[in-house]
Design goal:
The protein is mostly helical and about 375 residues long. It has one domain. The protein contains 12 helices and no strands. Helix 10 runs antiparallel to helix 11. It is globular.
Length: about 375
């Protein structure tokens, strides 16, 4: 007992000493933390990339082992499936970028060149719509159209100026771009090493945990399984949802002859990776892009996408994806809001399965404690 008390006392003293040192030299500690975080970003990104690629690689390995048998085939299973998985992601990325970037550049150029004309067409469309025009005149006076024109011109000028500043800053930030590319390269290399030796890494970590913290082996394995199941189900489910919604959007836009069909459908599909609110982000961008060509088409596109999302969300999504997140809707919205505030789009993607894992762990612990209480009672 005395030995245990001394151990806890020593731990408390060390924690207090470190805390006092951090508060005393906060500026230095902050700089050290920032440097450490910046240096670890490629490895964190590489580990995350390895996790996502591993889902596809594991699928390839299952198919490979069914098709090819023998000692040599078994030895080649990992390198072959690793190359196939990474090549699949690379080809998909190149195809998507090849489709999206040219149309985005074209739409930005058209937006800059046709901004005055687009504003005039928008005002003309409002003036020709008697219901909308009367409503605006009722709230803003008889000169509502002129006031609206002035406001839109002001906002358009601000947006174009901001866009120009952003593009200029992007061109001037050669060092930052090079650093980002280097980090991406390091992340890819690190992910390849992790995937190539994932079993050995798992065995080494388990040996360390068993040796130094044997009591934590079972709880850690339980937590790992829950987090793995939540993240894997989330990525597979949301990817399926994104592909279905993006494909339906593309087909519908082709049928109704909407402009920018490929770019908008890809943006809608990618943004659908974020549950609940994600698809609306892509829809907003799509409406803005189509509005540069035709205000009426943009409105019809909005009607089409709302109907499509109702159809897809109520009929297709529950059957194809189901409750892959395992989190009530209220908590999903909370996770998206907090994750977006802390980490932007990446935070939204990670926050949902993370909170789902915490939700399952708490639910599991509550059920265990309730069972213990019933046994005692």
């Amino acid at each position: 007992m005395l030995k245990l008390d001394k151990r806890w006392l020593l731990t408390l003293v060390v924690v207090l000493a470190i805390s006092l040192a951090v508060f005393r030299y906060w500026s230095f500690a902050e700089q050290v933390l920032k440097t450490t975080w910046k240096a670890s970003l490629p490895f964190i990104g590489g580990a995350m990339l390895a996790y996502v690629v591993n889902i596809l690689m594991s699928g390839y390995e299952k198919v490979y082992k069914k098709l090819f048998r023998g000692k040599l085939a078994k030895q080649l299973a990992r390198p072959v499936c690793l190359v196939l998985a990474n090549a699949t992601f690379l080809i998909l990325l190149l195809i998507l970028l090849g489709i999206v970037i040219p149309e985005l550049v074209e739409s930005i150029q058209g937006l800059i060149a046709l901004a005055p004309k687009a504003i005039q067409n928008l005002v003309k469309s409002i003036q020709e719509n008697s219901l909308l025009n009367n409503t605006l005149n009722q709230y803003f006076g008889s000169d509502a159209s002129e006031e609206l024109t002035r406001q839109i011109n002001d906002y358009a000028t601000q947006i174009l100026n901001s866009l120009g500043t952003f593009l200029l800053g992007l061109l001037n930030s050669v060092t930052e771009i090079f650093s980002a590319l280097l980090n991406i390269f390091m992340a890819v290399i690190f992910s390849l090493y992790v995937l190539a030796s994932k079993e050995d890494l798992g065995l080494q970590f388990r040996r360390l945990l068993t040796t130094y913290l044997p009591k934590l082996v079972a709880p850690f394995e339980n937590v790992r399984q829950i987090f793995h199941q939540s993240f894997r189900s989330f990525f597979i489910g949301q990817t399926t949802e994104a592909i279905i919604l993006g494909t339906l959007t593309f087909v519908g836009m082709l049928i109704f002859n909407f402009p920018y069909a490929s770019t908008v459908s890809i943006l809608v599909g990618f943004s659908a990776m974020i549950p609940v609110v994600g698809a609306y982000i892509g829809v907003t961008v799509g409406v803005i892009l189509i509005m540069t060509q035709s205000f009426s088409q943009a409105m019809w596109f909005l009607v089409f996408i709302v109907i499509l999302q109702q159809f897809e969300g109520n009929l297709i999504y529950p059957r194809v994806v189901g409750n892959s997140v395992g989190l009530p809707g209220m908590w999903v919205i909370l996770a998206i809001t907090v994750g977006g505030a802390l980490g932007g789009i990446f935070g939204m993607l990670v926050a949902v399965p993370f909170l789902a894992s915490c939700y399952k762990l708490i639910k599991q612990d509550v059920q265990r404690r309730e069972a213990e209480n019933r046994a005692i009672g």
